[in-house]
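ARCHIVE CARD
Drawer: 12
Card no.: 0347
Subject: one protein chain, sequence and derived structure
Cross-reference: see card 0346
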Amino acid sequence: MSSEKVHVRSNGCMKPYNWMQVGTWILLPLLLLQFFFFASPLLPLAASIPCSIVVFFFGILTAYKAIKTTITDPADSHLQKKKQGANFTDEEKAEKEARYCHHCESNVNNNAVHCNICHKCIEGYDHHCKWLNNCIGKKNYQLFFDTLVSLNLFLVSQSAVLIGIIVAFFVGWDDGQTSSTEQRAIDWFGANQPNVVIGLNLGFLTIDLISEWLILQLLFFHLSLRRKGLTTYQYIIKLNETNRIKAKHQRQINDRRAHHIKKANEEGNSWEKMKLVVGGWKGCGCIDPIRKEMKEEDEAAKVAAAKAASRRSEMESITNDDSSDGNAKEDDNVRGSGIYIHSQGNGASS
């Protein structure tokens, strides 16, 4: 480990901050203020109160969950014990569920990953969230997920209200009439600027819809991960491994294609060369002789592996049967010896 002192961050409220985190804490209050000053006044009183309660409830809930996620220290439990000055027993140092991190200079749990931004190991590491400027792990993942859900509900409810206001504003324009919503926009704080008011609502609706689309994708992604029992980090590792396997397979196809094309050139087989070239084009995999050949080889390998496994299973079954027969014969011999000894004893006593 470097002798240079590393600044270990406890949570997302510690420096260094980033523009994404700052943007989060500016945009959320801005959306609430926009609704309070530009959307709620355009609603009839009977709708304004319940709509405002719903929007502000989800907005405040989002802020609360986000703050809790940000201030939670997701560090590995071993690191927190070390920070508190606790001494590890020999059993704890040698426990199978722990490994040693040379960066943290401490034992950490096997599911911990070292974050180079926070400079510490995170237990149950999921990812480092730049929007909250904190790592997401076992200790704050549920809070993070709750933040996504509440933010999604906040954006949906606010967008729904803004869409209703904008639609109601333009009702009656074909007949040259002024709708009640437009009239309230005209009367808004006595400014007599309905187009400015509705333009601001249109602008914030655009922000809401874009944000909603992004958050909804993220929410569905995490729902998928929870269903599969994976963290974001595990998913990325698995995806990279899958991509490496695909890349290796593609290299094998390319090498074999180059070899076959060279062979076709040497033999002067133009038809075979054309099939090989066209088969390599995107979307032409179904007529590719190379892929067909490799697929047949894979299927043959699977059949051979299945046969080998079946033979091993049969041999194990025969071995187990022989062992059972041997044990049974041994038991019979023991019982026979016992009967013989018993009969000899009776003869002696008589």
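Annotation on reverse: Residues 339-350 have pLDDT under 50 and may be disordered. The two ends are 89 Å apart (CA to CA).
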